[in-house]
Specification:
By secondary structure, the chain is of the alpha/beta class. 43% of the residues lie in helices and 15% in strands.
Length: 364
C-alpha cells in the first residue's frame, strides 16, 4: 500500500510542458526507413546522421540513449567532429555537449536491503561523457527511481540523467560523487513522473532529418538551446517499462529522470523508514483514541484521519521530497476499531442472552 501511495505522489501535479528538454524518438516508421533499415543494432551511419541533424538544430546538450556498444572510438570522434561542424555552421560560440548511454546487466541481489550489482559494458575510452540510463526496475518490477551512479572497479560511473543535467548547467560530465562502497549499487533517487509523456514535446527522427538542413529550421526550431534526448520508441527496441505512470518508453523515463536530477534528487525511502513511520503514527492514533468519546472518534477515524493523513503526506512529499505513507496506519486503525466494535457487539449479545435466561420463569 505504501508503494501505491508513493506512485500517486510521483505522478501528481498538472501537466506543464517542460521548456528545457526535447525528445527525439525513432518511431516504427523511422526504423523501417532507409536510414535505419530495421537493422539491429542501429547502423552507425544512420545514428550519426540523426545526431548531426539534431546538432544542426542548435541544442545545448545531446543525450544519445541508444546502443552504441559496437562503435569504435574513431566513429565516436567522427560524430563529434560533425557536431562541432554543425556548431560552426550555426555560428554558435558554445560547443554542443554529447552524452552517451552505457548499458549494463542487473546482477544478483544479496541480503534484504541490498541493491545488488550492475555489470556495465566495457568503455574503450573513458574520455567521452558516458552515463547509465534510468530504466532500472526495483524489487517490484517498477521503475520508480534512477541510480545516481554505478560502481565499476570502485570508480563511480554517473547516471546519464545526472550527466545530462550537469552538462546543461555547464559543470562538466562528472561531479562530486562519493566513492562507492564495494561494487554494491547505491540507493535509487526517485523520479518525478508528473505529467507523464505529455510533459515533453516529441519529434520523430524523420521530422528532424527532413528539416535540419533547411534555413527556416536552423533559424528557429523547438530544439534550440535545450537538452535533446535521442532514443527509440519502435517496438523492436523493447525499451518499455512499468512506471507509476503506466508503461513508458525508456527515453521518456530518462527525460523525467533528467528533470529530477536537476532538482537535486530525492532518495527512495527504505523499508525500515516506512516501517518506523507506520509504527510511530499508528501509536499516536491508537493512543489518541483513549482521549475521545468512542462515537466521536469513530467519525473522526473514518473522515478526518484519512483526509489529514493523505494531505500531510502529500504536503511533506511535495515540499521536502520526503515520503511518509499513512495509508497502512489508517487501515490498521480502521481494522482495530472494527474488531473492537465486533467484540463489543458479541459481548452485549451474550449479556443480553444471560439476562433473558434469568428473567424467564422456570418451566411449570
Amino acid at each position: 500500500m505504501e508503494m501505491v501511495n508513493l506512485d500517486a505522489w510521483l505522478r501528481a501535479g498538472k501537466t506543464v510542458v517542460d521548456q528545457h528538454i526535447m525528445v527525439v524518438q525513432i518511431t516504427d516508421a523511422d526504423y523501417a526507413s532507409k536510414t535505419f533499415n530495421r537493422a539491429c543494432p542501429l547502423p552507425v551511419a544512420g545514428v550519426s546522421k540523426l545526431i548531426r541533424a539534431v546538432a544542426l538544430s542548435g541544442p545545448k546538450v545531446i543525450v544519445v540513449d541508444l546502443d552504441t556498444l559496437h562503435w569504435t572510438n574513431d566513429q565516436r570522434a567522427a560524430v563529434l567532429a560533425e557536431v562541432d561542424g554543425a556548431r560552426r555552421k550555426l555560428g554558435l560560440a558554445q560547443a554542443v555537449q554529447v552524452a552517451w548511454a552505457i548499458g549494463g546487466a542487473q546482477g544478483a541481489s544479496g541480503a534484504e536491503g541490498d541493491s545488488g550489482s550492475l555489470v556495465l559494458e566495457k568503455i574503450d575510452d573513458p574520455g567521452y561523457c558516458f552515463g547509465v540510463p534510468a530504466e532500472i526496475p526495483d524489487e517490484y518490477g517498477v521503475v520508480r527511481g534512477y541510480l545516481p551512479y554505478v560502481p565499476r572497479d570502485r570508480v563511480p560511473i554517473p547516471s546519464l540523467a545526472i550527466v545530462a543535467s550537469r552538462l546543461f548547467e555547464g559543470k562538466g560530465c562528472t561531479g562530486d560523487v562519493q566513492p562507492p562502497v564495494g561494487d554494491q549499487l547505491p540507493p535509487a533517487d526517485l523520479i518525478d513522473y508528473s505529467g507523464g509523456p505529455e510533459r515533453f514535446l516529441h519529434l520523430t527522427a524523420g521530422t528532424v532529418l527532413g528539416t535540419a538542413d533547411t534555413y527556416p529550421w536552423q533559424n528557429s526550431n523547438p530544439i534550440q538551446s535545450k537538452i535533446a534526448v535521442i532514443g527509440g520508441s519502435f517496438q523492436e527496441a523493447r525499451d518499455r517499462y512499468v512506471t507509476p505512470h503506466g508503461y513508458l518508453n525508456g527515453l521518456d523515463i530518462l527525460a523525467h529522470a533528467v528533470v529530477s536530477a536537476s532538482l537535486g534528487g530525492v532518495p527512495e525511502p527504505s523499508r525500515n523508514k516506512l516501517l518506523l513511520s507506520d509504527v510511530l503514527v499508528g501509536m499516536f492514533l491508537v493512543t489518541g483514541s483513549y482521549f475521545l468519546h468512542k462515537y466521536w472518534f469513530l467519525a473522526v477515524s473514518f473522515v478526518a484521519i484519512p483526509f489529514v493523513a493523505l494531505a500531510a503526506s502529500f504536503l511533506i512529499f511535495s515540499s521536502t521530497g520526503y515520503f511518509i505513507s499513512y495509508v497502512p496506519v489508517v487501515a490498521a486503525v480502521f481494522l482495530h476499531h472494527l474488531i473492537e466494535h465486533a467484540e463489543e457487539h458479541w459481548r452485549m449479545r451474550r449479556e443480553l442472552h444471560e439476562l433473558r435466561s434469568k428473567a424467564l420463569p422456570p418451566p411449570g
